[in-house]
């Protein structure tokens, strides 16, 4: 790949990213999520429409964007919630979904619709927690009782499928995959303990002194932590999204100095550049030809995301949330994309997934990202007594 092609692609991606907030602002009452604009923009500039950009030339940057997306999700996760009712309900909900997913995909495999049902079944249990966070934040949905339920539900919908990928789709086999997973957790635990050791007191002092100087110590250490765990996960034969998610969890526990300042910097770096590149690249990579040849597959997977992952919320949270909130939970938990991209890549690499199913599953994830959060936000606004504050959609921390 020559430098000129890479630069032209980056220019096209940067233009789509820069224009996205303005397109959102001009969408009026529709209030399109920025994710939708970024993905559609990627499709338009990609090789299957205008041909202005080559997705292969930004693969590495897009992968870093995916890493930042999962790092932010891990950082937002409050582990204490899983000792409470809301966390236990989320875990139960995921296992109910997993049972339904296995049954449904088993039927699809029996009739020849899918080649091997493990990656598809895992895909139907996912929730795009990291991608939903900026949408929930920008629409004031991260506070109150509803947020205490949706946060753990989204987190388990992102984390437990990653564990499933590590065990069932590991290139090293199930036993070594499980052993690698345990080793990965031990490495992450080591990182949480290290900063507390007394001999590192001088290290911590240096970090605090340089966090707002040109050395930007906390931000540099965070990026280094992300890449260390990405590399370790890759070396263990695990999907790198696990390393990114654990990096966020670790960062939550050892982030030194001014934590609020660090969060602002991570928002700027992640949502300002890397994460939009991931979404635009996802649009460029969307296999429109395969989807056009078998559109029914995309429709089936799209509906299954809603039925398998989303609808159980209507029953599981009947004593905790009102009907409107349960419908919001249904649409939010059924939203998937980043993990579907990872699952499709793993499934194709290992031969566990048919190419047409990989394209349809990712396409269904794109469609869910385009539709479901918007429906949930509309229901949220309708249920609020006070008028919603219109931010104009120009917050570059994420799509809204």
Automatic annotation (TrEMBL):
The chain crosses the membrane at residues 6-25, 32-50, 56-77, 89-110, 116-136, 148-169, 175-200, 221-248, 298-317, 329-348, 360-379. The keyword Membrane applies. It is found in: Membrane. Residues 18-375 form the Cation/H+ exchanger transmembrane domain. One of its GO terms (cellular component) is membrane. Pfam families: Na_H_Exchanger. The keyword Chloroplast does not apply. Keywords: Antiport, Ion transport, Membrane, Transmembrane, Transmembrane helix, Transport. One of its GO terms (biological process) is proton transmembrane transport. GO terms for molecular function: antiporter activity. It is a multi-pass membrane protein. Its main location: membrane. Belongs to the monovalent cation:proton antiporter 2 (CPA2) transporter (TC 2.A.37) family. This is Transporter, CPA2 family (TC 2.A.37). The lineage of its organism: Bacteria, Bacillati, Actinomycetota, Actinomycetes, Micrococcales.
